[in-house]
Write a structure and sequence with these properties.
The chain is 33% helix and 24% strand. Strands 12-11-8-13-16-17-18-19 form an eight-stranded mixed sheet, sandwiched between helices. α1 runs parallel beside α3 and α5 crosses α8. It is elongated. It binds cytidine-5'-triphosphate (CTP). Cytidine-5'-triphosphate (CTP) binds next to α12 and β16.
Length: 415
């Protein structure tokens, strides 16, 4: 789609690293109608163009691409590019680019743009682990963060050579989510969860009937993954317990996969013992089949009765609440999907559930108008046990995640 006057204007800076090729996919996502539908100007460094040609960025962005301040002199590109943006995203940010940005250099169009702009800046570093962990890079990152630049931690995994470690550019999908979040809410990613251990459950549990069949639900896990992504970007040490999801691990997040409610229960109680907060975004099955057959149930077999007997699963949230004590008192956040009816509103049902479950915070989704499952957006009301409530308007799931992280960070600092 052609950008319109209401399209958000994003400058996509591209540093000279091998991950520059992933900037093409990010660009495509930023421009997509299904996403932000942004008007994107790509500003690569000279070295970035050794990995990806200017023609590729020009074709994908629909705009000319310049790298130095002497290009397009009449339009004073190094000033106008930064002035007219809503957000600057740099992906990948190499060690050299971080150093130049931290010291205020303006020796190419991208660094000059960074000095001119006053809009939020997001940087996604990618480099070899040794370069990332070098004290010089660590100091540059600290300097940039202290100035309000959002610097993501790189993802961990296979690097350019045979080795692996921290240094991979996060997936374009995650970078697009963070970009969209910052466009909605520039202050959504403060570093207020540094040193905090947060457990997030996500997805939907499956309760096997036999080796091929299960009772499950339609939770995609997107809300839980958005919570993990945002909490990690705010500096938390995040453990994500994912039940039957098909989403990729957000950068900086340690993920374990579980299948059944009982597996999720064990993993959650174990992780919660060391956590500052537990966020129960998973859709946990309330019941499981009373019998789990070791072999496939045959239509003709006698035990293939038409009636399914169920056993109740433990309520993990309630168990977390029961187990907490003064020494280990994590903030406990529950989720609830509710519909209103003639006698009670969604908020009233939410308040009653918050009291019944005994958790600190309950995020209530109003599902009266249809399913939220699998959608990229969400709207909810965050109820706290101190009586406060906050309505989060419909927006990307990362926006609701940021509002939940605000409440958790606030409770942790005032504890
Ligand atoms: N939950 C849980 N263990 C279960 C069921 C639910 O920990 N066995 C958690 C969910 O992760 C969620 C919260 O409890 O955070 C609310 O789930 P919900 O299904 O709405 O609660 P129920 O008590 O089952 O209420 P309802 O009777 O309305 O289904």
């Amino acid at each position: 789609m052609q950008p319109t006057s209401s399209s958000p204007r994003v400058v996509l800076g591209v540093g000279g690293g091998i991950a520059a090729y992933k900037a093409c996919e990010l660009l495509r996502r930023l421009k997509s109608d299904d996403g932000i539908a942004a008007d994107v100007t790509v500003v690569p460094t000279e070295h970035a163009l050794r990995f990806v040609g200017a023609a590729t960025f020009e074709a994908l962005s629909g705009r000319p691409v310049y790298t130095d301040v002497f290009a397009d002199v009449p339009s004073v590109a190094h000033v106008s590019t930064g002035q007219h943006a809503d957000l600057v995203v740099i992906a990948p940010a190499t060690a050299d680019l971080l150093a130049r940005a931290a010291t205020g250099r303006a020796d190419d169009l991208l660094t000059a743009t960074l000095l001119v702009t006053r809009v939020p800046v997001l940087m996604a570093p990618a480099m070899h682990t040794e370069m990332w962990t070098h004290p010089a890079t660590a100091l540059n990152v600290e300097t940039l963060r202290s100035r309000g630049v959002v610097v993501l931690d790189p993802a961990v995994g296979r690097l350019t050579g045979a080795d692996s470690g921290a240094g991979r550019l996060p997936d374009p999908e995650h970078l697009a989510q963070v970009t969209e979040l910052l466009l909605h809410r520039p202050d959504a990613l403060p570093r207020d969860l540094v040193g905090r251990r947060i457990v997030v459950t996500a997805g939907g549990t499956r309760e096997p009937l036999d080796p091929v069949r299960f009772l499950g639900n339609r939770s995609s896990g997107r809300q839980g993954f958005a919570l993990a992504l945002v909490a990690a970007a705010r500096g938390a040490d995040v453990t994500l317990l994912a039940a039957n999801t098909a989403l990729s691990v957000p950068p900086g997040v340690s993920m374990s996969e579980v299948g059944t409610a009982e597996e999720l229960r064990r993993a959650t109680l174990d992780a919660a013992a060391r956590a500052d907060a537990v966020i129960m975004a998973a859709a946990v099955a309330d019941f499981r089949p009373a019998d789990r057959h070791g072999s496939k149930i045959k239509k003709s077999a006698e035990h293939a009765a038409r009636t399914l007997e169920l056993t109740e699963n433990a309520d993990i949230l309630a168990e977390l609440v029961r187990r907490r004590n003064r020494a280990a008192h994590p903030v406990i956040v529950g989720f609830a999907a509710e519909t209103g009816d003639a006698s009670h509103t969604v908020a009233e049902y939410g308040r009653a559930k918050l009291a019944r479950k005994g958790c600190d915070v309950l995020v209530v989704n109003d599902v009266s108008g249809g399913a939220v499952f699998g959608r990229a957006d969400n709207a909810a009301t965050i109820l706290s046990d101190d009586g406060t409530e906050q309505a989060v308007p419909r927006g990307p799931k990362a926006l609701l995640a940021a509002a939940v992280c605000d409440v958790v960070a606030h409770r942790l600092t005032s504890a």
